[in-house]
Amino acid sequence: MDSMEQKQQAVLTVAKAFYDRGVYTQYDQRSMDRLIQVTPRRRKYLPPEAGNSQYTHFLDCSGYMSAIYLTAFGYELPSDLTWIMVDQMEPRKYLYNLTHEETFADIQRVKDEMYAILQPGDLITWQRYTGSGHIVMYLGEGRYTECTTPPKMKNSYNYEECKNQLYERGLWWRDTLDVKFPLTQEDWENNKGLFHENIKRFSIHRPLEIVGDILPQAKLRMGSAKDLWCAVENSAPGLRQAYPGGKVDYTVIVRNQNAEEKDIAVTFAAPAGTTFADEGKAEFALQAGEEKRVTFSVTVDGGNTAIQLEGPKVTVNDLIIYAHPVLLGRQMTDSQWETVKETALAELAKGETSVAAAAKAYGRLGIQIDPVQKHYSWGKFCYHDTPVGDVISRRPQKPFEDLAVYTGFGGKNVITPEMAAGSYVRTTFISAADLLPGDVILCLEDSFGDVAYSAFFDGEKLIGCFEAGGKTRSISGEEMDTFIDSLFGRFAFLLLRPAQGL
Q1: Per-residue DSSP letters for 22-72?
Q2: Which pTM was predicted?
Q3: What distance in Å separates the CA atoms of residue 255 and residue 158, rounded to the nearest whole number?
Q4: What string of pLDDT tens digits covers the 502 residues of the chain?
């Protein structure tokens, strides 16, 4: 049985591994699947290495804590909602219900009581009167870590302006917990911390007493893989695709954050459905602060009909490094693309919607898609009537039949309850680089599709409508980037890729 000290070391090591991802891990307040105004971005089931320059790892405060305990012990915290955690998370070591009649002396007494109880790895939660809360992890020596935005900044997605706001980091390593307690009478008047009038109660929890033993992979983070920053990137990230018969490159990145030289051993096992001719091993020494990249190339089997390539098995000093799946697709020939492009542009010039234009264009290749925009609201989504508004959820995906990009959907009113534990089946970020010539972005502004508009990508620009009732026009460059960035703030969006029907 692992000792409490070892468990504390494990949980702090994992927390630091998430923190060290820097800009690649971001805070997203609306990242959980709730009833309304949600985004499909949360990634609490993935390890730290899932965040890299190609894939931003989105968490919120409770998602960060859950991810730490899952990675360290395989233990899932009992709730995702901080204001419920106050009651549900065991064991609870301390609870304070505010009266808001506390004196400065009362605050100092409560502070002394909490510091006498707190141990590294403990979780501090608080509930607000507004029906929300927050959670942080105590690191010891008066420090704590949390997942949140920088002070006085908006969340990583600004739903009012419909745009991403990515910061230097979404996780924070705080120097002192004292900021939660007014230290002087002047502080009490300016910064009430945990005694703010909006806070109802706060508590201390110690899951380390019930989590079980440290996972073998977490022990490697404390041993042979200690202070290593690792990632696996690929040549077809995001919503881009690989093709049967084509090549995929996987680049393993290793950075030595240790103060001394470290010996590194990398192993690579190719994904199922690919051919790999090399040995799949690399050994080298890394100086303190040094980084090295090693690339392994595979060929997708010609008869591979899977939706995606699962990530290869990659280890660095025996630690398994998460590798994202790669979407598989079907590729148009140059002549097929010219046919599609010529027909679609001609139909758009007549005033047809982009969906109708694509239906006519792909019909010339024998690919049938529904030309009516509103049909996609019930053809690809299910409707849910909730007390706080309408939401829709994605139907089971069959990308080579429904001709929509696997994972390529989202929006603030899209819920994905069936995907809570399989978060890899939805996208967290989309950019112009994810679009392929012939793609169609379809936006819905209501659950029935009565307000819908779409845009066709010709390889350089988007052509179509970009708001309800808008006229057909083309956008490119910064304007196109702004529109794509806005998709998660719209009611719902879907990325159609009719070439999947070839």
Answers
A1: GGGEEE-TT-S--SSSB-TTB-TTS-GGG-SSSS-EEE-HHHHHHHHHHHH
A2: 0.93
A3: 33
A4: 899 999 999 999 999 999 999 999 999 876 544 444 555 577 788 999 999 999 999 898 998 999 999 999 999 998 877 888 899 999 999 999 999 998 888 989 999 999 999 999 999 999 999 878 899 999 999 999 999 988 878 777 888 888 988 899 899 999 999 888 877 777 666 667 899 899 999 999 999 999 999 999 999 999 999 999 999 999 999 999 999 999 999 999 999 999 999 999 999 999 999 999 888 999 999 999 999 999 999 999 999 999 999 999 999 999 999 999 999 999 999 999 999 999 999 999 999 999 999 999 999 999 999 999 999 999 999 888 777 678 888 888 899 999 999 989 988 888 764 444 444 566 788 999 999 999 999 999 999 999 999 999 999 999 999 999 999 999 999 999 999 999 988 999 999 999 999 9
| 3-class SS of residue 156 | coil
Region 223-328: CATH code: 2.60.40.10
Amino acid at 344: A
- The residue ranges of every structural domain in the chain are 4-209, 223-328, 334-501
Identify the CA nearest to 267 among candidates 327, 325, 323, 328.
Answer: 323
Pair 193, 56: CB distance under 8 Å: no
The domain made up of 4-209 is a member of CATH 3.90.1720.10: yes
Measured CA to CA, the distance from residue 493 to residue 454 in angstroms comes to: 9
What whole-number distance in Å separates Cα of residue 55 and Cα of residue 38? 19
Q: Work out the angle between the directed axes of helices 61-73 and 4-19 (0-180°, nearest 10).
A: 130
